[in-house]
């Protein structure tokens, strides 16, 4: 049973329950996203998780070759690649995850609306090193059990929160990587001030990821003052991949 959802979020979660099982045998080791972020920070660079996202319900769209994009992001020093696999609203695909996880040697995050263990089986089989778990679409028991299930594959989830209430839920569930989304998933409005307010309440032993709406180095430097360790960036890099060089 999911939490009470409305609008497109209800539809995207219903769609998640019917995603097929991927019959593939994983053929690569699991890379640690936490270790990769810590290493890039030690090199005094900005850990950027570059997202491969072809569309979103907020009206974004970009057509880029997944292999070329992933190679350019890795070459430019991205700490990891986030790959949208949600097929109905984001034009994502499990194929993109398989292709990209077999193109790069940096951690790959499966970005989807995960509500079932089968989706985590798929992430592991396709070569993902982490998965997104969104507090807003899960009950607390589901969140705790899916975190443990992901860890049984040595996939450490990125647990996404919106506000302080969801921060408490994520911490109680034992999250080790917490992402704060500046975008409201239902209304698509962006609020960076809320992100700063929530970031500063996350304990420093948790890896803190600022997500969405990031387009400049100035924004990154500002978010770092509030405790952000890493930055999840999609639209601005899908539009102009070379921009990553000025953000690292
Ligand atoms: O394109 P942006 O504004 O750089 O945002 C990237 C990423 O944060 C965003 O795509 C995202 C964050 N959380 C999600 C959950 C589902 C789908 C997408 C997302």
TrEMBL record:
<feature type="domain" description="Indole-3-glycerol phosphate synthase">
    <location>
        <begin position="26"/>
        <end position="242"/>
    </location>
</feature>
<dbReference type="Pfam" id="PF00218">
    <property type="entry name" value="IGPS"/>
</dbReference>
<dbReference type="InterPro" id="IPR013798">
    <property type="entry name" value="Indole-3-glycerol_P_synth_dom"/>
</dbReference>
<keyword id="KW-0028">Amino-acid biosynthesis</keyword>
<dbReference type="GO" id="GO:0004640">
    <property type="term" value="F:phosphoribosylanthranilate isomerase activity"/>
</dbReference>
<dbReference type="GO" id="GO:0000162">
    <property type="term" value="P:L-tryptophan biosynthetic process"/>
</dbReference>
<keyword id="KW-0210">Decarboxylase</keyword>
<dbReference type="InterPro" id="IPR045186">
    <property type="entry name" value="Indole-3-glycerol_P_synth"/>
</dbReference>
<comment type="pathway">
    <text>Amino-acid biosynthesis; L-tryptophan biosynthesis; L-tryptophan from chorismate: step 4/5.</text>
</comment>
<keyword id="KW-0456">Lyase</keyword>
<protein>
    <recommendedName>
        <fullName>Indole-3-glycerol phosphate synthase</fullName>
        <ecNumber>4.1.1.48</ecNumber>
    </recommendedName>
</protein>
<keyword id="KW-0057">Aromatic amino acid biosynthesis</keyword>
<keyword id="KW-0822">Tryptophan biosynthesis</keyword>
<dbReference type="GO" id="GO:0004425">
    <property type="term" value="F:indole-3-glycerol-phosphate synthase activity"/>
</dbReference>
<dbReference type="InterPro" id="IPR011060">
    <property type="entry name" value="RibuloseP-bd_barrel"/>
</dbReference>
<dbReference type="InterPro" id="IPR013785">
    <property type="entry name" value="Aldolase_TIM"/>
</dbReference>
<comment type="similarity">
    <text>Belongs to the TrpC family.</text>
</comment>
């Amino acid at each position: 049973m999911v939490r009470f959802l409305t609008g497109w979020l209800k539809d995207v979660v219903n769609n998640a329950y019917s995603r097929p099982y991927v019959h593939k045998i994983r053929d690569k080791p699991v890379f640690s996203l936490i270790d990769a972020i810590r290493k890039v920070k030690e090199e005094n660079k900005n850990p950027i998780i570059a997202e491969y996202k072809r569309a979103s319900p907020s009206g974004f769209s970009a057509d880029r070759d997944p292999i070329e994009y992933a190679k350019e992001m890795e070459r430019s020093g991205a700490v990891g690649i986030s790959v949208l696999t949600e097929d109905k609203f984001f034009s994502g695909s499990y194929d993109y995850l398989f292709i990209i996880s077999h193109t790069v040697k940096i951690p790959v995050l499966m970005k989807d609306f995960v509500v079932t263990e089968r989706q985590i089986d798929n992430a592991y089989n396709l070569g993902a090193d982490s998965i997104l778990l969104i507090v807003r679409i899960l009950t607390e028991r589901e969140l705790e059990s899916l975190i443990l299930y992901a860890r049984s594959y040595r996939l450490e989830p990125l647990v996404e929160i919106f506000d302080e209430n969801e921060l408490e839920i994520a911490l109680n569930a034992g999250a080790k990587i917490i992402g704060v989304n500046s975008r409201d998933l239902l209304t698509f409005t962006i609020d960076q001030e809320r992100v700063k307010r929530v970031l500063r309440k996350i304990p420093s032993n948790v890896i803190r990821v600022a997500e969405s709406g990031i387009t400049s180095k100035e924004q990154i430097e500002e978010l770092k003052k509030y405790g952000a360790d890493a930055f999840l960036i999609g639209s601005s890099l899908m539009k102009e991949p070379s921009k990553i060089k000025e953000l690292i």
